[in-house]
């Protein structure tokens, strides 16, 4: 975790430094119109997953994501759109479709922003073999998707900007496991419980 924080700090400093020379001469910025956002991110799981009554397992899943958003900017401070993403877990993947709400806190070349996503994730793939150490299958079914972040937007031109943010993410799904009746728990599972997976990470992107 300490190494991740150091990398995140360096990314933020580099991001601001590279963008300053391009943004410092700007005086006008896009106030309304269609916007397009593409982002890439990674996140680490941090919560406990309860299953089988009184058992639990730590969510230590790392995810890598790519998202595309098309929306409309109604004012310098507010936009609303629809997003489609691809979330790659260790042994499975999700495709979230969601509404994207964004609020810029300043009308300036540098502006803190808040974004909220809410929708539903379909499944792309699920490994049929339980994990070696835990004998469970994570993220076994589709479910509700939520993400929220706070970050910095830096204008490169009148209508183009760079984005970097800290993100919290929640995925509703299930965990598959075996009980004492399964004689082949390393090869298959025979039970399933609903589960909520929570993540925190960083996301970078561009807006046009």
Q: How would you characterize the overall build of this protein?
A:
With 208 residues, this protein is mainly beta. Helices cover 11% and strands 59% of the residues. It contains one helix and ten strands, in the order αββββββββββ. It has one helix at 2-23, and strands at 33-45, 48-51, 55-58, 62-75, 78-88, 92-104, 110-126, 143-155, 161-177, 191-207. The strands form two sheets. It has an eight-stranded antiparallel β-barrel. It has a two-stranded antiparallel sheet with strand order 2-3. The longest helix is centred in the N-terminal third of the chain and has 22 residues, at 2-23. It is elongated. 30% of the residues are buried. The model is unreliable at 18-26 (pLDDT under 50).
């Amino acid at each position: 975790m300490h190494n991740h924080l150091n990398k995140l700090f360096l990314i933020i400093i580099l991001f601001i430094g590279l963008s300053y020379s391009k943004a410092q001469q700007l005086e006008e910025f896009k106030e309304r119109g269609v916007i397009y956002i593409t982002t890439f991110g990674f996140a680490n799981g941090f919560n406990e997953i309860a299953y089988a009554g009184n058992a639990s397992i730590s969510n230590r899943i790392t995810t890598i994501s790519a998202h595309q958003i098309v929306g409309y900017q109604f004012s310098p401070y507010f936009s609303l759109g629809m997003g489609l993403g691809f979330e790659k877990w260790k042994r499975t993947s999700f495709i979230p479709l969601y509404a994207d709400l964004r609020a810029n806190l300043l009308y300036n070349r540098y502006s803190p922003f808040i974004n909220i996503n809410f929708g539903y994730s379909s499944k792309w793939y699920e490994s049929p073999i339980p994990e070696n150490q835990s004998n469970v299958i994570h993220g076994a079914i589709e479910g509700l998707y939520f993400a929220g972040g706070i970050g910095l937007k830096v204008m490169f031109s009148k209508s183009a900007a760079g984005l970097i943010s800290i993100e919290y993410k929640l995925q509703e799904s299930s965990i598959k496991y075996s009980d004492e009746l399964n004689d082949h728990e390393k090869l298959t599972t025979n039970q399933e419980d609903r589960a909520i997976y929570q993540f925190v990470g960083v996301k970078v992107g561009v807006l046009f």
